[in-house]
Amino acid sequence: MLRTAKVPILERIRHDPAQVLTAAGMPADPWQAECLRSPRSENMLLLCARQTGKSQTAAGLALLTAFLQPGSLTLLLSPTLRQSGELFKDKVKRLYIALGRPIPTMQESALTMELVNRSRIVSLPGDAEKTIRGYSNVALLIVDEASRVEDALYSSVRPMLAVSGGRLVALSTPFGRRGWFHEAWTSPQPWRRVKTTADECPRISAEFLAEERKSIGERWFRQEYLCEFLTAIGACFSGDDIDAAIVPGVRVLEFPA
Questions:
Q1: What pLDDT, on a 0 to 100 scale, did the predictor assign at position 1?
Q2: Contact by Cβ (8 Å): 27, 37
Q3: Does 228 fall in a domain?
Q4: What whole-number distance in Å separates Cα of residue 58 and Cα of residue 230?
Q5: CA angle, corner 178, sides to 175 and 184, nearest 5?
Q6: Which of 113, 149, 231, 257 has CA 20 to 30 A from 76's CA?
Q7: What pLDDT, on the 0 to 100 scale, is given for residue 232?
């Protein structure tokens, strides 16, 4: 059996979870360090612009769980298998290799890995609900591109965490004022909410953002880079108009079917 206490890199990670990125030569931004150091019991919503490091953060959380919780199961869920496979291969596996494989694998494939401490990380497609219902006792469920994951699928995977008391981490850019991710972000439910816009990322230049604003237009720029939930194109009324029309405390009339 592996004596993890004698692996220096694991001791660094135990002392400071943000080291799961820093020790791999990928210094964590302040918001990433905050997420990596957050309590295991805390569910998180990461509302982040593209290329700000949200997938890298998710990879760090996946490896922290696998390294420090022997026998744990981490699931990576994306709208398609290609996306979840990319998260696993390009982020999780690359980070694992950069850390020097501190805990060896027993089994490894293009979509999964099982460590000798019996922890597993498994990639799943969001477009095949029947194939993912069989998982249980999940320690960490990561939902990538969460704003594009259907409400029904989200509702069907939540019970995976019921017995284990596992953690749910959802990461995404916005995709309109609709769906469970938008509702969760705007609800009073006790999520830890972390928002990171492109202009807050030290690796994205102001010149690049100015060019993008001109190239893709104000609406898409605000959604993709400023993380704004915008009304769907073609809607009769804007979200702001609808919000302004709602009077707190007034009971909604219900009519019989």
A1: 44
A2: no
A3: yes
A4: 25
A5: 95
A6: 231
A7: 59
The CATH number for 30's domain is 3.40.50.300
Q: Tell the residue number behind the tokens 């079917």, with chain if given.
A: 257
Task: Indicate the pTM of the whole model.
Answer: 0.86
Per-residue pLDDT at 2: 47
Q: Write out residues in the chain with pLDDT < 70, as ranges.
A: 1-6, 127-132, 232-257
Does 189 reside within a domain?
Answer: yes
Question: For residue 108, is it within any domain?
Answer: yes
- What is the Cα–Cα distance from 208 to 204, expressed in whole angstroms? 7
What single string gives the DSSP state of each residue in the chain?
A: ---GGG-HHHHHHHH-TTHHHHTTT-PPPHHHHHHHTS-TT--EEEEE-TTSSHHHHHHHHHHHHHHHSTT-EEEEEESSHHHHHHIIIIIIIHHHHHTT-SS-EEEE-SSEEEETTS-EEEEEETT-GGGTTT--S-SEEEEETGGGS-HHHHHHHGGGGTTTT-EEEEEE---SS-HHHHHHHHSSS--EEEEE-GGG-TTS-HHHHHHHHHHH-HHHHHHHTT----PPTT-SS-HHHHHHH--TTPPPP----
Q: Which of 71, 76, 158 is nearest to 112 (CA)?
A: 76
Give residue 142's domain range. 4-245
pLDDT at 15: 96
Is 119 inside any structural domain?
A: yes
* Count: domains in the chain: 1
**CA 65/CA 36 separation, integer angstroms:** 10
